[in-house]
Amino acid sequence: MSTAIEIRGLSKTFNNRFQALRGIELSVAEGEMVALIGASGSGKSTLIRHIAGLLESDKGPCCINVLGRPMQAEGRISDNVRVLRRDVGVVFQQFNLVGRLSVLTNVLVGLLGRIPGWRGILGRYSRSEKLIAMRALRRVGIEEAALRRAATLSGGQQQRAAIARALVQGARVLLADEPIASLDPASAKRVMETLTTINREDGITVMVSLHQVEYARRYCPRTIAMRAGEIVFDGPSAALSLDFLRDIYGAASEELVLPDAGDGEIMIDADPLSGPGLRAAAVPA
């Protein structure tokens, strides 16, 4: 299986004193769906921004390859980064939509890396391109909102519009940085189900940063846990019992577990889209 993301020796220091990342070594195969968890300040967002080519690493023997091509090396972003970013979609917590524009136009922005710049500036999109955008909106379940201003949508709808934009972009790797942090539980569930569907049906590699570990256990077969800029766990999400999280994070584990999780291990259904989902199971004393 081909490698979608490969990181070797990644470190990042801000202001010459705060080390946000420390010697990160990581490999993600094409088609994987991976959760990235950690308490606030653990380095999740910094890691995602490096993979996307939005931040330069510290100088030194570091490399980040995406889909077999160098995104950056030794503290320098690739000269070819604009081309590489065509295959990398990024979904942020704050949606990054233009509120006064229609949802359809916001989704069509995903084409800007693949069409002449003047057409993007003038908003000159072809009928076939608009049909592509409508199909993407249908995939995420909000095609009826295509002509509404983006600002009129709920938070969950705006996040799904951002995912549709990544689909139109033709992204083969999707990086989602805390995409459900500001959403209510029902909207969060819909967004995670949308990410799961495009991963399963399109084979898009998905790395999603999450603050509550229950969503990682339910939707992502693999979880990478971070603490103080380092990877402290990389393995099956099913292994993330509450006791295990307490061992890794101590008191900070309270940030990662939803308040209704209860004590003990949380089990997950084999198919996250069909069963009742999470259920608490007591761990024998």
Give a short synopsis of this structure.
This protein has 285 residues and is an alpha/beta fold. The protein has nine helices and 13 strands.
Q: What do you see in this structure?
A:
- By secondary structure, the chain is α/β, with parallel strands linked by helices.
- It has a single domain, classed as P-loop containing nucleotide triphosphate hydrolases (Rossmann fold), CATH 3.40.50.
- It is built from nine helices and 13 strands.
- The chain has helices spanning 44-51, 81-84, 103-108, 117-122, 127-139, 155-169, 185-202, 213-219, 242-249, and strands at residues 3-14, 18-29, 33-37, 63-66, 69-73, 76-77, 88-91, 173-177, 205-210, 222-227, 230-236, 265-267, 279-281.
- It has a six-stranded mixed beta sheet, with helices on both faces. Strands 2-1-4-5-6 form a five-stranded antiparallel beta sheet, with helices on one face.
- Helix 5 packs across helix 6 (155-169) and helix 6 runs parallel beside helix 7 (185-202).
- It is globular and about 55 Å long.
- Residues 260-285 have low confidence and may be disordered.
Set down the secondary structure blueprint.
Elements: E1 3-14, E2 18-29, E3 33-37, H1 44-51, E4 63-66, E5 69-73, E6 76-77, H2 81-84, E7 88-91, H3 103-108, H4 117-122, H5 127-139, H6 155-169, E8 173-177, H7 185-202, E9 205-210, H8 213-219, E10 222-227, E11 230-236, H9 242-249, E12 265-267, E13 279-281
Parallel strand pairs: 3-9, 3-10, 7-8, 8-9
Antiparallel strand pairs: 1-2, 1-4, 4-5, 5-6, 10-11, 12-13
Helix pairs in contact: 5-6, 6-7
